[in-house]
């Protein structure tokens, strides 16, 4: 009846939004890092506004006028904050990996430890295939290793 129509109208007009999380996402930003990200974004916007203002007034990047000086000062401050943000992001990621390894080693979760190591080291998945390899050559290689090592010693 009526509740069925209301439910279908609700689902149609107000769809349920799902947010996916990535299992490979180790980096959990700290409050300080989030504040620095916000600061660098606002400085970059300010720089772009000053740059457009400078260019719209016909300045040829002389470096001596008031607009050029303000633009250069904001750019220098932006670079300083950007470098600090990148340094803090790397430190935060490193701390999160270490904490994750400590938690997983306390649980004796060897599979989780290796998964964290693989994600932290950015190793790509192996795409090699041995389907077309000749089993005779494999056998010859491993059968001759012992004698070649013995002859070398």
Record the SSE blueprint.
Blueprint: H1 2-13, H2 31-56, H3 66-106, H4 110-121, H5 135-152
Word description of this protein:
- The chain has helices spanning 2-13, 31-56, 66-106, 110-121, 135-152.
- The chain is mainly alpha-helical and 153 residues long.
- α2 runs antiparallel to α3 (66-106) and α3 packs antiparallel against α4.
- The N and C termini lie far apart (88 Å).
- 5% of the residues are buried.
- The model has no long low-confidence stretch (mean pLDDT 81).
Which features would summarize this protein structure in a list?
single chain; 153 residues; mainly alpha; 5 helices; extended
Uncertain segments: none
> Into which percentage range does the β-strand content fall?
under 5%
| Total of DSSP H or I helical runs spanning 4+ residues | 5
Order of helices and strands: HHHHH
N-to-C span: 88 Å
Q: Percent range for helical residues?
A: over 70%
What would you call the structural class? Answer: mainly alpha
């Amino acid at each position: 009846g009526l509740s069925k129509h209301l439910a279908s109208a609700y689902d149609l007009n107000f769809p349920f939004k799902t947010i996916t999380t990535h299992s490979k996402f180790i980096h959990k930003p700290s409050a300080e890092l989030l504040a620095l990200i916000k600061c660098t974004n606002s400085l970059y916007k300010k720089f772009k506004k000053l740059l457009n203002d400078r260019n719209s007034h016909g300045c040829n990047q002389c470096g001596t006028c008031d607009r050029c000086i303000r633009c250069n000062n904001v750019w220098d401050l932006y670079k300083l904050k950007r470098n600090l943000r990148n340094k803090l992001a790397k430190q935060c990621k490193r701390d999160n990996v270490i904490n994750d390894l400590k938690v997983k080693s306390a649980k004796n979760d060897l599979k989780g430890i290796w998964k964290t190591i693989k994600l932290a080291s950015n190793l790509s998945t192996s795409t090699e295939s041995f389907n077309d390899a000749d089993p005779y050559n494999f056998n010859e290689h491993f059968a001759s290793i012992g004698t070649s090592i013995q002859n070398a010693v």
